[in-house]
Amino acid sequence: MQVSFPSATLAGIEALPVDVEVDVSTGLPNIAIVGLADSAIRESRDRIRAAIRNAGFPFPPRRITVNLAPADRRKEGTAFDLPTAVGILAAAADTPPALSWQRNFLFLGELSLDGGVRGVRGILPAALMAAREGYAGLVLAPENIPEAAVVENLHLVGIRHLREAADLLAAPDPPAAAGIPRRPDEEAEDDAESPDYAEVRGQHHARRALEIAAAGGHNLLFNGPPGTGKTMLAERLPTILPPLARAEAIETTVIHSVAGLIPAAGGLLGRPPFRQPHHSASDAALAGGGNPPRPGEISLAHNGVLFLDEIAEFRRSIIELLRQPLEDRRITIARSAATVTFPAGFLLVAAMNPCPCGFFGHPRRECTCTPQQLAAYRGRLSGPLLDRIDIQVTLVPVEAGELLDHEHRGEPSAAIRSRVIAARNRQRRRLSGRAQPLNAAMGERDRQRFCRPDAAGRALLEQAVDRLGLSARGVTRTLKVARTIADLAAREEIGTAHVAEAIQLRVG
């Protein structure tokens, strides 16, 4: 007898429908899995056999063929364990079950040797695909339910063991939908332990630069000696970013779901992600890769912040990987089997020391680097990459008196975030209908339309080009930063002061 159960496989960050067809026929006992299955699926034969036996069912001593259709599409992962095992039980039954509603539910789950059903990664893209293709719901492990519940109007059936799945075969109607555990509202959580800019002493110039970067989505580079607060400042940047809109939250959660990084509570990721890879990370860890390709740190930072501390210590090949996503907000991974494009619309914050010893330009410490060492260190960041970083800030050590002043706290993150949200709302109205309504992502037409400084501001920018040697890209990005500064000031016109501050932030 032959039966089939719907399931899904991942292709990049999307899920594609797959029919798990199971045929049980006479012949030598054997399980054959066909349909371009990866090693994890081929290994499932022994896992499924043990799960069926340990769940209390006899394993049919017959020839079993499992086809994952369409057969010309590569499949990967352990989510086919459950539909394969259920298909074997249904096809081997003395009285074949009258499958009805089961054909309209996706079956997704990994099996343990004792027959337990485990959660799998990529549930959110599978749920989105199910809703798009008109499926009624999903049969899956309870731990995956909060993630799948993000998609509305899907009937979710949670099962913990293969015996429960077998009971579904004889059920004329689907069981009641699983209850959705309430997830705490991230915005309502106690932020007493969360980092806050009120804790930062001094560095007012750097705080202002971060506010502008957050408001317009501009990339930023901190350059300064050790102990000047570069990491502390960068780690607090997510606290002044607006919460993710629903579309952004779904897109971000899908990427983390594919990578298997959804927290146990499930649900949407409401806050912008903050990723901080170590400088020893490989190219694949940063850009994404593997077989099949999975998202790397660049994509995991989508709609959030990618912080590269000690960027000059990263390998040159990794640093140059940033050039495409900084321009296109996506990264393409090409492999012989497939080419996958992952979103990569992140805000880059990089930090570096001014020299190998770290004390070049320090007011109280002497630099021990030779001119050759200094030139080689600075040359680790190419000109084209630096040209794509809108804001470059040099930090100096904070004076002891200001550092030890515990009576006067700095401005809290909540106050800064309110200004950032107001500035982004102005951009959203101005750039209505654009995929990325941020000043940093403006195309050339929008830049020419909305980034026109007044006469004095234009004259100042022309002087900067002559004296500082700004490139064409540098001029464009300076104008976008000036537009953001004007938005923070609630001004429609870009004035001289806005251009002057943008130039200062550009040249460090």
Helix content: 25-40%
Q: Determine and state the CATH class of the largest domain.
A: Alpha Beta
Query: What is the CA-CA span between the terminal residues?
Result: 73 Å
SS-derived structural category: alpha/beta
The Rg value, from CA coordinates, equals 28 Å
CATH homologous superfamily grouping of the largest domain: P-loop containing nucleotide triphosphate hydrolases
Strand order of the largest sheet: 11-14-17-10-18
Give the uncertain stretches in residue-range form: 184-190
Number of helices: 21
CATH topology name of the largest domain, in short, is Rossmann fold
Report the CATH architecture of the largest domain.
3-Layer(aba) Sandwich
Shape: elongated
In short:
Helices cover 37% and strands 17% of the residues. It is of the alpha/beta class and 508 residues long. Helix 3 packs across helix 6 and helix 7 crosses helix 20.
Give a structural overview.
- With 508 residues, this protein is α/β, with parallel strands linked by helices.
- The protein has 2 domains: 2-170, Ribosomal Protein S5, domain 2, CATH 3.30.230.10; 197-507, Rossmann fold.
- Helix content is 37%, strand content 17%.
- It has 21 helices and 18 strands.
- A 5-stranded parallel β-sheet has the order 11-14-17-10-18. Strands 1-2-4-3 form a 4-stranded mixed β-sheet. The protein has a 3-stranded parallel β-sheet with strand order 5-8-9, covered by helices on one side.
- A hairpin with a 5-residue loop joins strand 6 (110-111) and strand 7 (117-118).
- Helix 3 (81-92) crosses helix 6, helix 19 (455-468) packs parallel to helix 21 (496-507) and helix 20 (472-488) crosses helix 21 (496-507).
- The chain is elongated and about 85 Å long.
- The relative contact order is 0.10.
- Mean pLDDT is 91; it is low at 184-190.
